[in-house]
Amino acid sequence: MAGRPGYLTLPIFSVLAAIGYVYYTAVFLAVPRWLGLSTAAGVANAVAFTALAAACLATYAVAVRRDPGRVPPGYAPDVEDAESTVHEIKRKSGDLRYCQKCCHYKPPRAHHCRFCKRCVLKMDHHCIWINNCVGHENYKIFLVFVLYAVVASFYAMILIIGSVMHSVPKDEQSGSDSSRTSIIICGVILSPLALALAVLLGWHIYFILQNKTTVEYHEGVRAMWLAEKGGDLYHHPYDLGVYDNLISVLGPNIFCWLCPVSNTVGNGLRYRTSYDIPISTPPM
Prior knowledge:
Layout: H1 10-34, H2 40-65, E1 98-99, E2 104-105, E3 111-113, E4 118-120, E5 125-127, E6 132-134, H3 139-165, H4 173-210, H5 214-229, H6 242-250
Antiparallel strand pairs: 1-2, 3-4, 5-6
């Protein structure tokens, strides 16, 4: 059962333990066995993997602690605002979306999380591994953490495979058997984990390129089916094109896209849509 957002839970301790175990195995077992910590190659790989592990821990801590984005008290959509061309409504009644539990209107792309017990701006999903929602304010941090975790996992796999295949001199074999067993166990555990993280990263890259959240993807499947049933074509209203979609999630500075900082665009209450007139387009 998930605890309150930001609190340490068993899944969080599990992630921290996994990071520590993989780091110890890679740096203190695999690298010495394969390259040796007294060589330039060994030191370089140990330092590089340490930096990568530190980046994983830093981004993970921010993803756990950062608020994903709250709906301001007293928020109400301005239906007469000419600049806002899309107002999300309820499927059945056609009324503006209103959260009965939080007692306020929902901005576009906001959803109520039953675990956090609040409405989250641009909610993607609730992640038990960070005991927090992934939303407008921490989505990029979450994505960068997954990216670093994937790179670190495959880097560790290379070190593990290299150390297992490396032939140890006979006079050192007696002391290396236990380390070899530990390395193999880590590799067996790490293989499915690295694959799962790679799939998760690819899944979210696909979402970013279409400017969708996980919630919107599942809603879009139904909307697409209903549109095709009625002979229409469904178009995701927040799909602005690949480059603009990347900017809306990763920020306007391309050199900071992979940095572990959050530079979200906008306040999470209004989003550009494909129906908006670009500012650069002159009036007819």
